[in-house]
Write a structure and sequence with these properties.
Number of domains: 3
Strand content: 15-25%
CATH topology of the largest domain: Rossmann fold
Number of strands: 26
CATH class of the largest domain: Alpha Beta
Radius of gyration: 25 Å
Helix content: 10-25%
């Protein structure tokens, strides 16, 4: 008889039962089986419950067990940024350090003369963190991997490392610098390499942070640039427990909105007690993808955010034609390296459009003609081309192209040539430059630009670290209150569903909490302007 299929469940226990004792309930279920099976079981320590792989029948049996409050399926969670089309690719100083635009948008540097986030713990609950990264190693404090139950939360996606860099990349004349470059950085891996996970892993991450605060003391901030449209009773309770422990939670509002149809704030950002963060462009216009609603707290930069990624996982791509240099975009799967020489225009890459003269030269190919990028590059390589430059045929500046075909398993292991893409405008300039010889470069890098409320949330977490560092006796509620009442109003007067309370402001927030540190007289803290009324948006897919 085939074994029943299983799904991930969370078993919530009555207070005092203890997760370790609660797990023993599984023995009763297995005892009724002819052949007890092994399970993936995670027992929480600070939270009342455990997670396990169960069949529907087993879940039903546990619901009637003594000491069990409820049993619910774990719900899906995923990253909320990094996979959205980018308007541009924010440039950086290759010979030194770049200060990402968002640092000054939130006025972080105006606070650095007083504090840079010292003595505040910030935990990135995400895909992990590349703690070996030269911009993060100096502030790394440690972490946990809920997937392997180990102390190694190494990032295998890039998302968590990008978030971490925005929060705390060190000021070291290299790469980028974060909002709070001296905060203590922690990482908890709750999402898989593909950026997906489940609410029980998120709860396990929160459970671990609670334990760390109880052991070490101090002020703690959690950043969660993840979520979905589905709520979880146990995750909500875990968040409430974290808030009760005096830990501040900052979370991304979600990326499901469009310019014509706003989507409601995702979970966990929508839970009570969480500071939900939406995204704005550098010009402070709302990002069309940013989720909205009454739960929204503030907004922060979330478009073209330059930050760290896994060491060597990124690329710097450009095409040089004489004195002119054009920013390019690497096609996913492209070889790293540099090629130089004369170029040959090869139409749209159809069979027969590659003359013998392209052998040993660079193939310039127009997008289109119902020929995939992979086929264009393969034909160019077969003709002997040393590199490929794809010219976009539309004005969309996003060049999110790939050589990898999910329907062709060999594409991921194919020895692709150096392949980059130019915008339509830059492609026209290249062809009009009169330079027969060009340089095509696609070199490894540790930094990249991404979009999403995932990128906005860590700006807020960093501002919270700056504020708490200058007012260490403040509570998490004090920090959240100061951030909201000092936000710069961007939309309708007062709170609104699009911008929340407005754009976070590091200087105003820190000055309200400790005016003496900035040479200002003390002023009473205004009350939080909480929105009233029931939400009118209906929750959709997200």
């Amino acid at each position: 008889m085939a074994a029943a299929s299983t799904e991930r469940y969370v078993v919530a226990l009555k207070p005092g039962i203890g997760a370790a004792r609660g797990v023993l309930l599984l023995r009763d279920i297995d005892g009724a089986s002819v052949q007890p099976r092994s399970r993936d079981v995670s027992a929480f320590r600070a939270l009342d419950g455990f997670a396990a792989d169960l069949s529907a029948e087993e879940a039903a049996a546990l619901r009637h067990s003594p000491g069990v409050r409820y049993v619910e399926k774990a719900v899906e969670r995923h990253i909320l940024g990094g996979d959205l089309p980018s308007a541009t690719n924010a440039s950086r100083n290759l010979s030194g350090q770049t200060v990402p635009a968002g640092i000054d948008v939130v006025r972080a540097r105006d606070v650095w003369g007083v504090t840079r986030g010292q003595n505040v713990n910030v935990v990135v609950v995400d895909t992990g963190v590349d703690y070996r990264h030269p911009d993060l190693a100096g502030v790394w404090a440690g972490g946990f991997n809920t997937l392997t139950q180990s102390s190694d939360p190494m990032d295998d996606n890039n998302h968590g490392t990008h978030v971490a860099g925005t929060i705390a990349a060190v000021d070291n004349d290299l790469g980028v610098v974060g909002v709070a470059p001296k905060a203590k950085l922690w990482g908890v891996k709750v999402l898989r390499a593909n950026g997906t996970g489940s609410s029980d892993r998120v709860a396990a991450g929160l459970d671990w942070v609670i334990q760390q605060k109880r052991i070490l003391g101090g002020n703690w901030i959690i950043n969660m640039s993840l979520g979905s449209s589905t709520s979880s009773v146990f995750e909500r309770e875990a968040v409430a427990r974290v808030v009760a422990e005096g830990i501040l939670i900052v979370a991304a509002s979600g990326n499901e909105s469009t310019s014509t149809a706003p989507a409601p704030v995702s979970y966990p950002a929508a839970y009570p007690g969480v500071l939900a963060v939406g995204a704005v462009h550098p010009n402070l216009q709302i990002a069309s993808f940013s989720n909205q609603g009454t739960e929204l707290g503030v907004v922060a930069p979330g478009v073209d955010v330059l930050s760290s990624i896994r060491t060597g996982a990124g690329s710097i791509s450009f095409v040089q034609a004489g004195a002119s240099a054009f920013n390019a975009a690497e096609l996913v799967g492209s070889k790293k390296g540099t090629a130089n020489g004369e170029y040959v225009v090869c139409g749209v890459g159809k069979d027969g459009e590659f003359p013998s003269s392209v052998n040993g030269r660079i193939a310039v190919i127009n997008r289109g003609g119902d020929v995939t990028f992979a086929l264009k590059a393969k034909r160019a390589k077969a003709a002997g081309a040393t590199a490929v430059v794809i010219l976009n045929n539309v004005d969309d500046p996003a060049l999110n192209f790939t050589l990898i075909d999910t329907a062709d398993p060999t594409s991921s292991s194919f020895d692709w040539p150096i392949t980059v893409a130019l915008s339509r405008a830059d492609g026209a300039r290249l062809l009009a430059s009169g330079n027969a010889s060009i340089v095509v470069s696609n070199i490894a890098d540790d930094y990249d630009s991404n979009n999403g409320t995932s990128m906005a949330s860590p700006h807020a977490a960093g501002v919270a670290a700056l504020a708490w560092s200058v007012a260490q006796s403040a509570t998490a509620a004090d920090i959240r209150n100061a951030m909201t009442v000092n936000a710069k109003d961007l939309g309708a007067a007062g709170f609104d569903n699009v911008f929340g309370h407005g754009l976070i402001d590091a200087l105003s927030t820190a000055k309200m909490l400790n005016p003496a540190a900035f040479g200002s007289p003390a002023t009473p803290a205004p009350p939080v302007n909480q929105p009233s009324g029931r939400r009118i948006l209906r929750r959709g897919r997200g």
